[in-house]
Structure prediction request, 647 residues.
Amino acid sequence: MMMANKLSLSTKIFGILGIFFLIALVGIGLTLHVSWRLEGVAAAINDMGSQRMRTQRLAYLLSAIDQRLPAVTEVEAATEIERLERVQKALEAGDSNRPMFLPEQLGIHHAAVDLHDRWRSQVRPLVREFLTIKDTSRRHAIVQEYALRAESFIREINQLIDLMERNYSDSTNLLRAYQIMLVLLAIVGTCILIAYSFTLIVRPMRELQEGIRRMTAEDFSVRLQVNSNDEFGQLAEGFNLMANHLQDLYQTLEERVESKTQSLAEKNQELSTLYEITAFLNEPMSTEALCNGFLHRTMRAIAADGGTLRLYAEKDQELYLLAHEGVSSEFIQQEATLQCGECICGEAVTIDGSIEATIGEASARQPLTNCKQEGIQTVAAFSIVYDRRVIGVYTLMFRTLRSLAPSERHLLETLGQNLAVAVENQRLQASEKELAVAGERNLLAQELHDSIAQGLAFLNIQIQLMDESLRQGKQEEAQEALERIREGVQESYDDVRELLVHFRTRVEHEGLESAITKALKKLEAQSGIATSLVISGKGLSLPHDEESQALHIIQEALSNARKHSGAKKLWVRLERQPEKLTVIIQDDGQGFSPEGETDTLTEHQHVGLKIMQERAQRIGGTCQVHSAPGQGTTVTLSLPPITARPT
Prediction:
């Protein structure tokens, strides 16, 4: 008991909770293990049933082949054998991912292996012989013999299934026992925790509440009994100390109030300065105006006589004067540029904080000559830091000896960090604009590569072939090359027209549905492909730029269908739902292999699909292409709700 009183409250609570947690964890782990075994045995029973069914089906196939039924061939029987053996191998090897395995109990696994060995040594050779010979009488005899062996094989499979079902029943009973154990543990554990909580928490809490009530009634003689060394014991000791000092606090209350009022006034002034300068830094303006305004407001708030602000060029290891106030033109000319480490401003680049110095304390390394000529007595330099990287320094100058208080230093360092964020935001905005321009150029390059570049490459090859044919006097081949060049020029011309249409197309105020309708009408007029548009559901419209990107993806899909699919019909479904917007484009064309088979998927199609997927990713969606040779192509564009878009 004495040992328990010395333990902390958290140790006591965590100790008993840890014990119950470990017991529950073991019980849950056992339950999960048994559940996993049940899933594996159930899957094995299912596969054994599949093996039984395929054995019966193989008997039917052999009989049908023997009777020369036209609908059944030896290939189908061979395929059925391969499927049956795949099931056997899966059963023997097991699969922990499904899960699926044969249990070791009751000799099930060894019996299954023996059964499969019997299949390979007795049944499979018989079937292989049937498929290889042409003798009708021998085939008929094999069918009869297979029927007998298959019946015995299936009977053994049924026995194995019975054993596995018995194992499944045993595991189910074990699982129920574990679950009952967990229920009992929960009941017992709850009762113990309630009693433990009342002793450790509720009773000491009531005593503390009673002491607080008496203290509120100005009964300062109240004291709590300290019964333990845990957190409540420490609270009781603290309560007793508070009661001892409360009378002293009342006696010095007026003095303390005055001191706190002065401290609050200083804090309010600091917050006002911080708010004013932070609000100014959030206004849109040039970097030079930003730095000048920051320096002016900081000097006014701290009552400085002069100041400078320099930005650091890491490449040149130099500081460049960008803003100044309260200093002469000679000072500006002499200190327009400083090396890293030169003077107090250059030294501030090497630290993350501030430096304060007076003219009388200036060292030989930092003589502060120019400041002395200006009549400055005290100089304080503060680094402008962004993400632990110094991007500049600002300096405050005083014509009298002045020592900054710790709160003032902290305020000025915080202001320097805010200025760093504002300067970096301006740089990031400029970079973002450059990236946007680069992105548009990249899209333009992709579109050109997808259309004109490949067409010109094709024309170049045909011109070389025609030139070779003319030199060899092969007029017919030259004429054929000329026809291909003419077709290539026309196709390039059509691609250019289509490219211009894509660049000029915008989703107007009538919305995405109207734009898709116009695109389908144009497709029908150009290619004769019959189109159909189905619109369903309701939901919020996408932002204008996202609808434009979605329209480009749809146009690319329609263009691919016109150029490559050979389709006669094309269907478009637009489904608006609160949680997403889906556009499905499907045709009945020749299809292709999306995995990249070179004989069905051209480089042009590769680039087109990549562009569609990049556009979808840019607006937070996905673009999936499903196709197979001879089965048409389906393009599915899915966009998440506006609230889930990346920013």
Observations:
- The CA atoms of residues 530 and 610 lie 27 Å apart.
- The longest strand covers residues 389-398.
- The first helix runs from residue 2 to 6.
